[in-house]
């Protein structure tokens, strides 16, 4: 709507305008009552009319620059509809419409009028929005029809999908996980009630087989977590969490079934088997302590310093210890894990649960055979360590060595099967005993199921220092019993021929 311009009358014109109307004839005074005229009222009315006309003139003048501004910049850089409002700040000019009783705002939105006028103004919040992966809850098995955002990175699971396929070769599976498919299935079925997780609105749960596979492959290869992540298509932190969860489940579920001190019937069988091999009666187990390398801890560094390994490897070494007792098949029946590497074998033995069991009288008529790093006690049988040994003592040491080698060979197979024990691990020191305990349990399962080891995996040296304790004999009765056993071996043709 446009407002046409016109010239406003001045005071003189207004006066002449009203002079055109003559006074009413006096003759009419008799017929019509004449209203008295108030001059001051007429003057005020004229002023109000004049003020209204001046106000309209000022509004017209204020409209003209805005119209010129609109005509000058409309369509700058665009070829859109000239009636389209311009974006930007929105100054408005209110005009009367054609009926004169409503208001119509005119909006000036700035440059770039080629955009859709109905498009909402962009805000910082809209600009901060980033693309996300969305999934419907029906796909996640919830069936609620709601949609949730998933912040999940896509990773390739090609290797695991191939290994998990039923047609994957048995030998390659054994090489990857150090056990057969049947043994792997046994472990999964035992851990299923504890390890299984439920699907959520955010993501699908990782299957039990994949959870167990991540843990076993990590223990078997000792590879860093970033490589485990690439193999299984999972995040690094997820893999680390899975390893600890599965190891904890193995400790809580499988250890009571597969790593326990033998009962009376089983112990009788173990004694008979060891006597057939060595001729020494009442041998209930063979004991050995090994060291597992670790990264230098942040606290008590000196306690974990391994002097013998440092001298042998010509570099600073830190370790924790694993003391194990095995039966005639190399299956662990007792373990003591986690004591610092600077602690000698006899001190570790005193800290073990096995030592407490013996003090309670639960190891009567049972010998646990160890090397020269342990003291001779009522239930611990060790070789002679003094110089100038007799023939009988040499023969005894040879037979004790045969029994003690059963434990050493078991530790050797343990480290060969689970390569993580041969190198410094990324696991925190407080979590390491659980991981090492899981390795011992899995070792027992493999040994019980006669899982063989590839000969190429046995190409490493097992070096553990044997420090003769200051007090090598703690029981006079045990010393006499050892001498009797030595004479028994010599007179019953159990003496070795190594010195002949």
Structure description:
The protein contains 17 helices and 9 strands. By secondary structure, it is of the alpha/beta class. Residues 1-6, 24-37 and 69-145 have low confidence and may be disordered. The radius of gyration is 48 Å and the shape is elongated. The longest helix has 35 residues, at 39-73. Helix content is 44%, strand content 11%. It has helices spanning 11-19, 39-73, 124-127, 158-163, 170-177, 181-195, 208-221, 225-232, 236-258, 264-278, 301-304, 307-313, 345-351, 353-359, 391-417, 432-448, 476-491, and strands at 92-96, 103-107, 133-136, 147-150, 283-294, 318-326, 332-340, 367-369, 380-381. Among the domains are: 154-256, no CATH class; 263-491, no CATH class.
Features of this protein?
500 residues, alpha/beta, two-stranded antiparallel sheet, 44% helix, disordered N terminus, Nuclease, HARBI1_dom
Topology, element by element:
Layout (H helix, E strand, L loop, with lengths): L10 H9 L19 H35 L18 E5 L6 E5 L16 H4 L5 E4 L10 E4 L7 H6 L6 H8 L3 H15 L12 H14 L3 H8 L3 H23 L5 H15 L4 E12 L6 H4 L2 H7 L4 E9 L5 E9 L4 H7 L1 H7 L7 E3 L10 E2 L9 H27 L14 H17 L27 H16 L9
Parallel strand pairs: 5-8, 8-9
Antiparallel strand pairs: 1-2, 3-4, 5-6, 6-7
Helix pairs in contact: 6-7, 6-9, 7-9, 8-9, 9-16, 15-17
């Amino acid at each position: 709507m446009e407002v046409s311009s016109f010239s406003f009358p001045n005071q003189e014109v207004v006066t002449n305008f009203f002079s055109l109307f003559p006074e009413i004839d006096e003759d009419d005074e008799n017929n019509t009552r004449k209203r008295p005229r108030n001059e001051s009222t007429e003057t005020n009315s004229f002023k109000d009319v004049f003020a209204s006309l001046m106000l309209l003139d000022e509004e017209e003048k204020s409209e003209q620059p805005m119209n010129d501004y609109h005509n000058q910049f409309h369509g700058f850089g665009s070829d859109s509809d000239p009636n389209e409002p311009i974006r930007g700040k929105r100054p408005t000019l209110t005009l009367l419409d054609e009926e004169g009783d409503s208001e119509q705002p005119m909006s000036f939105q700035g440059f770039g009028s080629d955009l859709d006028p109905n498009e909402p103004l962009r805000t910082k919040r809209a600009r901060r929005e980033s693309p996300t992966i969305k999934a419907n809850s029906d796909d996640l098995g919830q069936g609620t029809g709601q949609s949730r955002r998933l912040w999940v990175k896509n990773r390739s699971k090609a290797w695991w999908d191939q290994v998990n396929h039923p047609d994957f070769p048995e030998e390659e599976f054994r090489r990857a996980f150090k056990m057969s498919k049947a043994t792997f299935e046994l472990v999964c079925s035992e851990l299923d009630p504890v390890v299984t997780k439920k699907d959520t609105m955010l993501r699908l749960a990782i299957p039990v087989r994949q959870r167990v596979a991540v843990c076993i492959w990590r223990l078997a290869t000792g590879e860093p977590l970033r490589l485990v992540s690439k193999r299984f298509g999972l995040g690094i932190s997820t893999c680390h969490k899975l390893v600890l969860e599965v190891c904890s489940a193995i400790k809580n579920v499988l250890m009571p079934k597969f790593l326990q001190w033998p009962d009376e019937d089983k112990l009788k069988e173990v004694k008979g088997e060891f006597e057939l091999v060595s001729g020494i009666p009442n041998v209930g187990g063979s004991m050995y302590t090994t060291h597992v390398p670790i990264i230098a801890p942040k606290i008590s560094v000196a306690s974990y310093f391994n002097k013998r390994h440092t001298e042998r490897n010509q570099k600073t070494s830190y370790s924790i210890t694993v003391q194990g007792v095995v039966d005639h098949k190399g299956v662990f029946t007792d373990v003591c894990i986690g004591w610092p590497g600077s602690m000698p074998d006899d001190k570790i033995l005193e800290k073990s649960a096995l030592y407490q069991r013996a003090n309670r009288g639960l190891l009567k008529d049972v010998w646990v055979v160890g090397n020269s790093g342990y003291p001779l006690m009522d239930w611990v049988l060790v070789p002679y360590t003094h110089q100038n040994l007799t023939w009988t003592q040499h023969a005894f040491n040879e037979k004790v060595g045969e029994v003690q080698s059963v434990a050493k060979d078991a530790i050797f197979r343990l480290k060969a099967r689970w390569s993580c024990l041969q190198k410094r691990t990324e696991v925190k020191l407080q979590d390491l005993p659980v991981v090492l305990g899981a390795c011992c349990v899995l070792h027992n399962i493999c040994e019980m199921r006669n899982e063989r080891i590839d000969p190429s995996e046995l190409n490493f040296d097992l070096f553990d220092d044997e420090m003769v304790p200051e007090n090598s004999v703690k029981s006079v009765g045990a010393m006499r019993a050892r001498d009797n056993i030595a004479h028994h071996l010599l007179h019953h043709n159990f003496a070795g021929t190594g010195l002949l």
